[in-house]
Amino acid sequence: MAPLPRPLPQGGFTFSISPSATHLNHPISHFLSTPLKFEGSASTSTHIRPQAIAGGALVFSQSAPDATDRILLLQRAPHDSMPLRWEIPGGACDPEDESFLHGVAREMWEEAGLLPRRMVCQVGGQEKPQVFLTRSGKVVMKISVEVEVDEGFGAEEETDGNVKWKGLPKVVMDPNEHVRFVWATEEECRAGVMMVEGEGGEMEELKLNFTHKEQRETILEGFQIRRRRALEGKDVEDA
Known about the structure:
By secondary structure, the chain is α+β, with helices and mostly antiparallel strands.
């Protein structure tokens, strides 16, 4: 018998939505009823109706002592499909979810124990929808969203010399789905490798083999969006 998912937080999910994410604030039925158009060769096109919707949450934080932008990555369990590969939090949205964005919030809570504060923007998939087939042949459309989390939830005050800083958000995984998490920089995601502290205290190389190339591309696009937003002097409320 599969373990039950983590109970929803008391009072449900409360988050704000930036202008760039309002088009995602619809029930799952809205996305299932909209055929996806794919351009083919010789000016031909194909329409595919998704049978399920999956959501992905790009969770970034600059709360480490060096203030470097990092993204949360989870390593899939060895007994699951694509074993031990890396991905962002996410999964299937349910018809019972209040909206697609609430489905993203639920998956992020169940897989990482994090609470969303703001849904910022869609990352990837605007020009060419991300569609994949499950092992049973079901057509699934995946939509990834940058999510600002409540960094005070589970974070602890730590001291680095004389400087106090709030640590990276506390991640509580579901061990049935994931076995490890990291906060990776853009350079580490691009290279597919990072250095981590081993069990004996020595530094060792950790390979970041993503679930598929689209996952890596979405992650790098997320970093690019955040870098461009910072250069333009915008914050997430204006995204």
